[in-house]
Amino acid sequence: MASIDFNNVSVDFPIYNASGRSLKKRLIQVATGGQLGSDAHGRVVVRALEDVTFSFRDGDRVGLLGHNGAGKSTLLRLLTGVYSPSIGTADVDGEIGSLIDISLGIDAEATGRENIFLRGGMLGMSKQEITRHLDDIIDFSELGDFVNMPLRTYSTGMHMRLAFAVSTIMRPQILLMDEWLSVGDEGFKHKAEARLRDLVQTTNILVVATHSRELLMETCNRAIWLEHGRVKMDADPVTVATAYFGN
Fold this sequence. Notes:
Elements: E1 3-15, H1 22-31, E2 36-38, E3 44-57, E4 61-65, H2 72-80, E5 87-93, E6 96-98, H3 112-122, H4 127-141, H5 156-167, E7 174-178, H6 186-202, E8 205-209, H7 213-219, E9 222-227, E10 230-235, H8 237-245
Parallel strand pairs: 4-8, 4-9, 6-7, 7-8
Antiparallel strand pairs: 1-3, 1-5, 2-3, 9-10
Helix pairs in contact: 3-4, 3-5, 4-5
């Protein structure tokens, strides 16, 4: 069982050393959609999310829509625990796996084998768990003897194959994604696609930020449209996609 409950959540980011001149503040307010204000201490703040309320349960496959800066990334980072609500409550029950930045924790000077343990540790896996999956990760990445070479000797494709192989070995209850991952050459892409779909099918709750109507319709059973940090629409994918993308 997994669950996510947001109740009237707002997230503010303070802007230090901001000018107090009224004209400049007014211009910034217009440019940021009116999301600039001040907190109780008089500091200038940008409100990235405002009064967001929803609940996700097992079986939910949620697509987050919205223009750049609408609050999708902030919402995903709230779910991972990187950010905390400035106002309201965000309760997450379940093991979380994040595919937002699959290269996080990768060290260019370390070998591929060493990076498997580094990246696995960043994902919350124990040394024993990583060791148990080590051969599968190496085989899937198709690195061969390069796994014992420093990552700085890898091509971009090799780097991404290794990062993908490690990041998708987990089977979390809650899976977070920022767009659908597509890595490697054509042959590897098919294998990666199959593995990613298997991961999505086995997770209890999926939350994916996307700009793709196709992904939303194929993968999700619910869609949330964010605009200037607020939930503009929360409904089934067809209803939200029609309103967001048009007919």
